[in-house]
Every structure is written in structure tokens, then in C-alpha cells.
């Protein structure tokens, strides 16, 4: 059974930092792209960042480039998202997902439950 468990969210002030973690199990971690999407209130879910574990390729949404860094630990089957210089517009529920490089978000089969990040102004 595929399991994705997010942690590390919470409330932070503008300009602050948080590190999200996604602990995974139930699949061969190194064979997949794993990453983060987010959904703000009243908005559609959007891609944030993705890492392809077999070659380390990373991608970022334009809105987070230079502020967020994705990384993975193959020994721990865990993906991280370091978020710096946070802005109120980063406020959202953040979801970890397997196969985040899928062309369509609707094509992503495995999701975590999501974790709330709130950035106060």
C-alpha cells in the first residue's frame, strides 16, 4: 500500500522559513518522481516542485523559484521542501504526490493527506 505522510507545516510570518517532509512507503522510491503541489482557498491545485529520483532532476513553479528547494533522501524514502522567504500568497494546503511529473495533475494517482502552511502578513 502506497503511503505518503507530510509533516512540517504550520504558521510562519512573512519572510520566514519552513521545511516540509514527505515520508513514503509502499513503492520503489528511486523509480519515481515525487514532489509537492498546493491548493490555496478558492483556487485550483497547482504544482510547486518535483524531483525525479533516478537522476535528481528538479523543477519548480515560477512563483517559488529561488525561494524553495526540493531534495530527497533515498535511504529514508523521504522528500523535503525547504521553503524560505515565505509570502502570504504561499498560504495553502501542501500535498505530497508520487509521479508529480505526470503531464496532467488529474493523472497523479497517489497523494498525501495534505498539510497546511499559513504565512501571516
What can you tell me about this protein's structure?
The protein has 121 residues and is mainly beta. The protein is 0% helix and 51% strand. It contains no helices and eleven strands. The strands form two sheets. Strands 2, 4, 5, 6, 9, 10 and 11 form a seven-stranded mixed β-sheet that branches. The protein has a four-stranded antiparallel β-sheet with strand order 1-3-8-7, with no helix packed on it. A hairpin with a 6-residue loop joins strand 4 (33-39) and strand 5 (46-52). The termini are far apart.
Could you spell the SSE succession in H and E letters? Answer: EEEEEEEEEEE
Task: Count every beta strand, where a strand is a DSSP E run of 2 or more residues.
Answer: 11
Gap between N and C termini, in Å?
A: 40 Å
Oligomeric form of this entry? Answer: single chain
Helix % is under 10%
Overall SS class: mainly beta
Proportion of strand residues: over 45%
Low-confidence segments, ≥5 residues, pLDDT <50? none
Mean pLDDT: 96
Biggest β-sheet strands, sense, barrel: 7 strands, mixed
Q: Round the Cα radius of gyration to an integer and report it.
A: 13 Å
Morphology call: globular
Number of alpha- plus pi-helical segments: 0
Amino acid at each position: 500500500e502506497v503511503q505518503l505522510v507530510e509533516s512540517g507545516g504550520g504558521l510562519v510570518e512573512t519572510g520566514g522559513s519552513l521545511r516540509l517532509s514527505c515520508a513514503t512507503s509502499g513503492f520503489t522510491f528511486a523509480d519515481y518522481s515525487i514532489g509537492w503541489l498546493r491548493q490555496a482557498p478558492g483556487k485550483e491545485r497547482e504544482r510547486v516542485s518535483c524531483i525525479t529520483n533516478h537522476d535528481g532532476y528538479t523543477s519548480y513553479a515560477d512563483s517559488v523559484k529561488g525561494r524553495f528547494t526540493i531534495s530527497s533522501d533515498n535511504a529514508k524514502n523521504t522528500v523535503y521542501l525547504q521553503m524560505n522567504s515565505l509570502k502570504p500568497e504561499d498560504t495553502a494546503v501542501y500535498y505530497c504526490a508520487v509521479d508529480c511529473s505526470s503531464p496532467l495533475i488529474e493523472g497523479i494517482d497517489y497523494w498525501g493527506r495534505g498539510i497546511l502552511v499559513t504565512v501571516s502578513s
